[in-house]
């Protein structure tokens, strides 16, 4: 390999020391000859830097044409075998390039729940600089989908930084995570997703799959189901245990995708979305059997959950509702809290369809949920359904909001004969 990247790799090896240079050369040569067997010579030494480059050390081309599946599989196998004492000791580097990958699980294929590991890091050169194109030949994974990453109750604290993931096969999926306590603590920083996916990240299991963070990421592309789907229920069908999906944080996000759901939580969840722009740019090309043509940012379809796993907070977010098939939230929780603070969905209030939008939808039961909007600017009307036989208590409050389309007296879309005593409007500005 020649050129600028090779020079940078050589500098990297000099920084890490002679032992690292010898190891990297050995690993790359062995991989290229087909004789590579992780870990490479010397990987257990105390002075090994723990950095593995998929190009320099494992022969990936990154030219957008070559199938680089074997290189990524080798890099992961190397990281897996370097783990010691339940601690991961490897950073996998993905230099600038467009990497075509066809094999499911090539980026991460963990299936050792009896040997759980903590700490794995994938580092790219930056957003739209290091692009992994996942183009499997067919669908052979859970729920009929092929997954680029699979974690079966094995890894915690996995970090992805500065990477772009593109679905090269419509209906492929990015990440399947199954947990009974061994999969948690994922972090995505300055990453991007493009192409048509079945799932972005599908969570399954009976415990944890929690403490997950997305920072300054862009969610693009399209999703037949959802970008984050919590509660796939392929292996664990215990409804109560599925409620152990907790603590998901989205910060400074650019959520601009074509169609599909952003977050769908059939089971419990504690979710915070703070700052960013959320836009659905189109509509589903064909009706979905469950959603029709609709796309939703936040969909919480089941009513009953444990206390503490029905909490949603959205703050400082600008929503663009460009189509009457776009839903901000559809929530059927019968308890818990939903809070929108300083959010605005009025960018397209001038459109002919906007007055009739019902982009915020709730089903209220005897226990709520508690729904509150503070200092928000809101378009259309908000729909409130009543659970069968329920008389909702006062549980909905609008405080210092601007109602762009309708005054408070006609802002609520209710069932026939439904009493509106559950809702309070405080110092709200009426439509003008």
Mean pLDDT: 87
Shape: elongated
Number of strands: 30
Content of β-strand: 35-45%
Distance between the termini: 66 Å
Share of residues in helices: 10-25%
Please state the CA-atom Rg, rounded to the nearest Å: 24 Å
Q: How would you describe what is shown here?
A:
This protein is mainly beta and 432 residues long. Helices cover 11% and strands 43% of the residues. The protein is built from four helices and 30 strands. The longest helix has 15 residues, at 18-32.
What is the gist of this entry?
With about 425 residues, the chain is mainly beta. Helix content is about 10%, strand content about 45%.
Write the layout of secondary structure elements.
Layout lengths: L3 H13 L1 H15 L18 E3 L9 E5 L1 H14 L8 E4 L2 E5 L6 E3 L6 E8 L5 E5 L12 E6 L2 E7 L2 E17 L3 E6 L2 E16 L4 E4 L2 E2 L2 E9 L8 H4 L5 E10 L3 E4 L4 E12 L14 E6 L9 E11 L5 E6 L5 E5 L18 E5 L5 E5 L2 E2 L3 E5 L9 E4 L2 E2 L8 E3 L8 E4 L6
Parallel strand pairs: 1-3, 2-4, 3-6, 4-7, 5-8, 6-9, 7-10, 8-10, 9-11, 10-12, 11-13, 12-14, 12-15, 13-16, 14-16, 15-17, 16-18, 17-19, 18-20, 19-21, 20-22, 21-23, 22-24, 23-26, 24-27, 25-28, 26-29, 27-30
Helix pairs in contact: 1-2
Sum up the structure in keywords.
28-stranded parallel beta sheet; two-stranded parallel sheet; 11% helix
